[in-house]
Structures are given as C-alpha cells and as structure tokens.
Amino acid sequence: MPVSPDNPLIIQGDTTILLDVHAAAFEQARSAITPFAELEKSPEHIHTYRLSPLSLWNAASAGMTADDIVKRLEEFARYPVPEFIKYSIGDTVSRFGKLTMRAADDGVGLFLAVNDVAIRAELLKQRKVAKYLSEREGGFYLPLVHRGTVKQELVKLGFPVKDEAPIAVGEPLEFSLRPECASGKPFSVRDYQSDAARSFIGDMMPGAGFGTVVLPCGSGKTIVGMAIMAMLKMKTLIVTTNVAAVHQWMAELLDKTTLTMDEIGEYSGDRKEIKPVTVATYQILTWRGAEDDEYPHFKVFRAAGWGLIVYDEVHMLPAPIFRVTAEIQSMRRLGLTATLVREDGREDEVFSLVGPKRYDVPWKELEAKGWIAEAVCREIRIDLPEDLRVPYAVAEKRHKHRLASENPLKPAIVRQLVARHADDQILIIGQYLKQLDEIANDLNAPLITGQTPNPVRETIYAAFREGKERVIVVSKVANFAIDLPDASVAIQISGSFGSRQEEAQRLGRILRPKDRSSFFYSVVSRYTVEETFSANRQKFLTEQGYKYRIEEWEAGDLI
Asked: Which helix (H) or strand (E) holds 232?
C-alpha cells in the first residue's frame, strides 16, 4: 500500500519504528517487520521496534535483501521512509558477506577472505582479532581452532562473517521417521515444521547446515529436530536443559523414529552413555570440580563422529559452552528456541557460534491455524498488607522484589483461581520455595523443585498427564522443555525479576492444542517493583500479539 495516514508504521531517523496498534493493518505490519526488527517496548497503543545490526544480519542470513526490507517498510509506512534509514539498512545488510570464511589452501586451517583493503587494515589494528590472524593476499589465514572466537570478535566489531568453511561429515546413522507412532497414533510432520527443517538444511553446500529455528512453545520444536536428524542420517548429540527433558527427547525418538533403545544414550548426572544418538544436559557438560578446573565432560563434544549437535532451548545455552568453539564450529549445529531473548545480552554469540536465525513464525499465526492453543493472559494486582508496607519501603531493592513476590495475600487468589477452573489441569509456578510449599500444602497438591529427585519429578509429571493429579506446584525447574499437553491454566505467583524469556516459556506450558482456550495468570503486588518487572516480562509476548487484561483484587473480594 502507498504512504497513507491510515498506515500503521512510523519509521524514524533514529532507527526506531513505531507501530500503531489501532491501525487496520497492524497485524500484517507486525508480521512483516518481525524478521528484521527488534521489539523494545509495547504499551497499549504504540509499539516501538528498532532496526539493530543483529536483527538486520539475521534477516540477511535468511536471504532477505536490503531492498526486501525497505519494500516492507514502505508498504506499511504512514510517512516516507527517511533516506538515512534506507542507507543505513543497505550499509548494515551489505556488511553480511564482506567477510567470508572458507577452507585454506593447505587443507588444515581457514582463510578469512576480506576484499576491502580498508577493512583488512582495520582488523589488523584490533588486537583481540589480529592476534589470531596471519595476513595473506586478499585476507587472512587462521588456525581452525580459532574459528568461533574470531567470528565472535568480528560480530562485536560490526563485521558478521559469512561462514562457508566445510562442515565435518559425521558418521552415518540409518533411520527414518515413522508414518505412525510406536504408541499407535498417526504421525506426520506439519507444513511449518517441514519448512523449518528445509530452511536449516539448505542446499547442503558451504554456508548451510547451522543456525537457529524459532518456534512457539507447544508447536513441536522437537519434531523439527527429529525431522532434520532423519534428513541428515548422521550421529547426533542433543543437549537440553534437564534430565526430565532428556527423557522426553528419548521417549519422542523412540515413539516417532525407527531408532532403538540400543542407539540412544543418556549423558547426565545419572548416567554417562555415548551412543549414536546421545542426549545430554547443559548442567553436566558445564560441571567442574573447582572454578579453575577444566570442564571434564566437554569430551562429549570431542567424541568421534557427530554429524549434528542440537541445542534445545538455545537461549539457555550456558556461557562456558561458548568457549568450546573449535568443537561446535566444525559440525552442523541446530539451535531450537521459542525466543532468542537472552537476559545476559549474548544473542550475538548465539548468532556467531550456533548460527543465525533460519526460520521464525509468529505465535498468533500458528494459533489462528489451530497448531497452538488460544491463550487468555490476565495480570491480577493486589496490595501489600498494611504490616508489610513500611518494611517494603525501607528494604533494599532485591529484598523489595522478594517481599512483593511473597505477598501473603497471594495464596487466597490462587485458591480462588483453582476453584474458578475446576475442570482444568493447572500449573502453579513460582520462584520462592517457602511460598510454593505453603501453596502446595494448602491445595494438597504435589510440589516439584530443584531438590525433587528426577524419578519423583517424572512420577508427578506422569500422574498429571494421566489426569490423576489436576494441580501441580512447580518452581522454575518446569520453565523449560516439559511436555504437559493437557495443562490449560498456568498461575504465575513469582518470577525471575524481569525475565522475558521466562514469561514466554511459562506461557508455553499451556499452549498445546486443545478444544478450549488456555488461561495464563500473573499475580502481582500493586505499587511495587513487581509491577515494573512484570511489564518487562510481558514485552516479548506482547510482540507476539498477546494482550494482558488487568484485574484489580481487594481483600475479601471475589475475582
């Protein structure tokens, strides 16, 4: 559509994009800009996005050109797109591909091709990069072991590398996806899952076979991983968040592929097996006896024959794994996540070490097609009791958050919500163990925390899936990679400060498709730091199109 006062986008010269929520083309415009713009804030009427170098490089790596991006902006622009913005987009996108990494002629190291003489001179002045480089005609030679480190440093300097160096060929592993689950249910890969798998595989030429797939919780990221594994047919290492997730991956592989138990190994605190498909936890890989010790379990990365490493919940990838650059750079690597938001700001390292975003799809688009459940989000605000207001006022900031989170009036709200949803299966999620223990006892519901032994956790999860338990209380150990398909209500009573990815993951616990809406409640202490943190937590989901209705609760009132 041409420039019009009815269009939803206002593109400004400071690289921000304002999106009018009330414009008729709001949904279309949001979908159009999501691949190349980052959401910064999302209040009721105007959402603010920014064109950042990383967001533009992700778009470029997925095949978008500067002209594609400008065309989308112009289609939905209320006013003409500033010429500086067009230039900035072109300049930033053009940086992707100015530096290309490929195999060196000696067949041992790598060659960083840099055709621009000025860029070569600039890199030689940057000590953090130059120490790894040996100047050659048209670029630089570097040892294979520094592949990932150099890419990390170059991204920080504003020069993303187009990595076309060869990927190691893993040992073959013959298996396929089943046309019918072992459990007897029909099974097929959905269209968007196939698209995601193909976008990762690419043409199997240099520059393909690594990157990140972003899909909503409940949409079947595990199936995307298995589809890619079945296409490659190579030995695979899968790394995930906890032992429960390890067992879920193993169960899914046995149910939906022709792999046998003899071909699938568990590498965790409980067992140390390396088999053609090995499923490990981040915790065991990053364990070490003392701060100065080596990481003894990094040997898993060095085990011969991996053709693919799958990083489940890649936004949780621990920082120490970023250091295993030689091992993770030499093979195909797949990141799976619902959100690339990292609270430590290291999204650029996921980009450079695991790979750029290869596939993304809006949550609401999958909801409209029935692939994930419709969710109703409500924030319930409640005052602090009179006797806590002065202690709260004089507390240190971190203690303020805890006082607000453990508001003693919250259990009463939880009881009412559980009664309101008498026919639903309910997750009550929080951070502070004393509060969770009180609520579990009050509701006579099982409690899962970090101290709960893995066999006990899995027994409780199984009872919930089978309908034997209607309500379970969980700490943040249940934020990630837990498959509870029948959960339809989540009640969040406290969280990790302003963590956006945690909010997304918790909503994701209730997004498995079902024949009715799901409900996501956040219980927040009014006029406290918890309100501020809650607003930040909701930003990512607001970008995806979810709206939070505010409900105010007074002591003695029914919600």
From this structure: helix 221-232
